[in-house]
Amino acid sequence: MKQLDRDIFEIGAADAGLPERRRDAHKGDFGRVLIVAGSVGFTGAPAFAARAAVRSGAGLVYLAVPRSIWDVEAVKNDEAMVLPLSPSLPEALETLAPHVEKADAVVLGPGLGLSVWARELVYAVLESCRAPLVLDADGITAVSRHIDVLDKLSCPLTLTPHEGEFARLTDALTRKPREEAAREFATAHGVTVVLKGHRTVTAQPDGVCYVNATGGPGMARGGSGDVLAGMIAAFLGQKIPGAVWKAVYYHGLAGDRCAESFGEYAMTPSDMIDCLKSVLR
Questions:
Q1: Which residues contact 222 (CB under 8 A, 6 or more apart)?
Q2: Could you tell me which CATH class the domain 2-12+30-279 is placed in?
């Protein structure tokens, strides 16, 4: 691993090894991932996250979506188990509760929308969750209105903002380079920050930062971040050492393979998920 500065390292291929699986392993050994996502008009995000989690080795993947899009997601997802959430918030939380309790990792927010229902759901899941949680997209926007929520959690939290979403959380990017801005927020709130973009930065609560050199501009399209969220949760659920920054590395590597095969203009998030077959081999 190449050291760029104090506690800032660039990830290389030699650093991103994955543990070998035991021959007598079963699905329960590889994590139960819960994804809470989606809304009318945003049915791609939950499907990308769920399919990426499955492709990244998660043993069991549950996808909880609003009842209004349940039938769409049930058709899109063969491997993930799709759960319908009631428009009544108390009923939705009652459905989620046993799954949140049993989860080894949770994804919260992709395509969830900005309704009062979605915002209150985000707060409730954050409060009750004890497993590692990946907060993405609309989940980040919900928290940006009440940053103090981050300081009251009982779960290890990873936030995956692009620069626009990060700007809703803090003005650090106006004052500092990307690595320092991400580290400032991560250490202040005891969270992991994956600041997406060119040379994605993973800043840990202990102040260590990992800079990713894989990936390219072909990944700059809707859905790429949902794929990453699913991958991070899958690696966290499997308790892979360095789960977050390794997921970032392989996500970028899948993007590179897609660019080689299809070109940066034509590649899609679905192609990236398919390319995980080769990059994780």
A1: 44, 269
A2: alpha beta
Strand partners, 202: 194, 210
DSSP output for 80-93:
SEEEEE-SSHHHHH
Q: Within the chain, where are the H helices? A: 44-55, 70-76, 89-102, 116-128, 138-144, 163-169, 178-189, 224-237, 243-262, 269-279
Model pTM score: 0.98
Residues 15-42 pLDDT 10s: 999 999 999 999 999 999 999 999 999 9
CB 205 within 8 Å of CB 191: yes
- Long-range contacts for 195-204 (Cβ within 8 Å, ≥24 apart)? 195/161, 195/162, 195/163, 195/166, 196/160, 196/161, 196/162, 196/163, 196/225, 196/228, 197/162, 197/163, 200/248, 200/252, 202/244, 202/245, 202/248, 203/179, 204/244
CB 102 within 8 A of CB 37: no
Sequence spans of domains, the chain: 2-12+30-279
